[in-house]
Amino acid sequence: MTTVGIDAVEIRTGNLKLDLPETFAPEKGEDPEKYTKGLGLHASSFPDVYEDIVTMGANAAKRLMDRKGLEPDDIGRIDVATESAFDHSKPASTYIAGCLEDVYEGDFHHANKGERKFACVAGTQAVDDAVNWIQAGKNRGRAALVIATDTALYERGDSGEATQGAGAVAMLIDEDPSLTSVDPVQGFGSADETDFLKPNQQFPSVDGKRSMQVYLARMREALQDVESQRDLHPDDFAVVPFHIPFPGMVRKGAALGFRHISRGTDVEEELAEEIGMQPRREDFEDDEAFRDALTEYTDDLTGTDRYREWYDRTVEPTLGISRHVGNWYTGSVHLARASALKEAREGGRDLDDAEMMVCSYGSGAQAEIHIETVQPGWEEEIAQLNVDEQLRARKDITFAEYEQIHEVHNYDETTDIDAFTTPEEEFVFDGWGRMGERKYTYVE
Ligand code: COA
């Protein structure tokens, strides 16, 4: 079978930054450490007045195409994953293609375009679709562009306000990829849940605490599904990127994952001297007693050197970017992969042919866990990211400015304020068309 996977990646952050411990926490009367230590977040990215899911997606795609020397004719498919769509019919991919056609020779009339929806897991589903399309031999030599783009804003006063963010990740899916191959092993955990939803409304209805339980429950099912296809061991994987609604959630997901994949292995035996064997359901009278024992075991586990070493090597490097941008919904797990590869390159870590276990999740709810293999040549590709420059260039907004920008992006309000930053060499939102469509232009 041809090797297919992620050939290139680009990251585009919203141009504004809200400092969570310094600016947001004091206004909320909260301890800044709830953000830095509890949630694991330092800042959220926000879109300026002229930014939205289309501009961020198109700007990421343009940098990717320029860098790889691509023309529209090289792309046979454009899929956008988002849960922030402003149009129930016309997919964001058509708007993005329209933007790109304004700056490139040629057009995307030959390209199949769509929009994928399943909360935050949709970005991974779009990658799967693109991989399948190429593996089915339908791509006629062309690559696919997958763009995960979101403005993750919550209603003012909602507990989710602490975890907001805005940005896009563009990925080129192709044969003989430079970054990672997407391998056939794939596990799912999927159930009809009402943890986070937007029934014809812009801002989500969220049961935050429940969504955290559902995240873990679906992840467990997806792990079991993977285990039905291959054995898993903690040392199999060099990197384990999770969907990151906030880094603190990944701390919980990682502990569950490690406990699960070390069960029945030499690692469980090795740890038994220190913290005992893992609780087994058959040894307990009821579910509650079993769950209490599991919680106690997990607390002990996360305090061991063996676990810490595993976490610091495979999970901590995936969180670096997210800590400074917040939740990007569909893009978050892809940000996690990029963050780990970036840190590995900077630290001189050899990841050639190493395996990754990629753990995606979308509320509503579905987890997908799949395996990727890092391709030789990944360092050169990941070195091209300019995310650090972008993060540094964001304007640090005050709380009053945050209140204004939140209103600008609220569809129910008409708030007309000047942009906080000056766009340069980027696509911008440029007003409304005669049928209520959003219009865009490229600013030199
Ligand atoms: N120092 C250190 N840690 C602190 C702290 C302090 N001063 N204050 C609070 N914390 C910790 C809490 O103990 C908690 O960690 P824990 O879950 O490990 O116990 C964490 O910080 C968050 O605090 P909490 O009071 O639970 O925050 P919250 O009520 O504002 O809600 C969410 C947090 C995540 C539920 C909320 O932001 C939300 O609804 N987010 C959107 C939904 C979401 O992202 N779901 C995830 C699955 S997709």
In short:
With 444 residues, this protein is of the alpha/beta class.
Describe this entry's structure for a reader.
It is an enzyme of class 2 (transferase). The chain is globular and about 70 Å long. It has helices at 20-28, 32-39, 53-68, 92-103, 122-135, 208-227, 247-262, 266-275, 287-302, 305-314, 332-346, 378-382, 387-393, 399-408; strands at 4-13, 16-19, 43-46, 75-81, 112-116, 143-152, 165-175, 180-190, 196-197, 205-206, 237-239, 355-362, 366-374, 395-396, 426-432, 438-443. The protein has one domain (4-443): Peroxisomal Thiolase, Chain A, domain 1. It contains 14 helices and 16 strands. Helix 3 crosses helix 4 (92-103). With 444 residues, it is α/β, with parallel strands linked by helices. The structure holds coenzyme A.
SSE arrangement:
Layout: E1 4-13, E2 16-19, H1 20-28, H2 32-39, E3 43-46, H3 53-68, E4 75-81, H4 92-103, E5 112-116, H5 122-135, E6 143-152, E7 165-175, E8 180-190, E9 196-197, E10 205-206, H6 208-227, E11 237-239, H7 247-262, H8 266-275, H9 287-302, H10 305-314, H11 332-346, E12 355-362, E13 366-374, H12 378-382, H13 387-393, E14 395-396, H14 399-408, E15 426-432, E16 438-443
Parallel strand pairs: 2-14, 4-5, 4-6, 11-12
Antiparallel strand pairs: 1-7, 1-8, 2-3, 6-7, 8-13, 9-10, 12-13, 15-16
Bound molecules: coenzyme A.
